[in-house]
Fold this sequence. Notes:
Blueprint: H1 4-20, H2 25-43, H3 49-80, H4 84-96, H5 101-108
Amino acid sequence: MFRLDYISCVLTIGAAVLVGQKRWQGWLVAVVNSILICDIAVNTSQLGFIPANVFCIALYAYNIVDWRKQIKADAVRERCALDYPAQREAQFREAQSERGRDIALRRIGPRPPKSPHAQ
Length: 119
């Protein structure tokens, strides 16, 4: 038979390492570990562990949802944080080609004047 206490020990360490690496999967491992601790508590008649671990499961579930929202928000922020001047310069280089010149100029408008401070 499996030694559930040793499995719980490995899961606790694994969850701590994953959360320390700022990976949301660590919270998922922690949920599995808390369910395992609840099973151990029922099998050993140590029922005091159950309310604490049910609270931990709810906390871990909240953290998973919150971290996933942050990951999605960060991805959107990175997509929106393009270097705008470099992007416009690339569009103007595209406009220099014979085929795309008219299309690019209609899409991005005339080239802005160079700033005296730009190098």
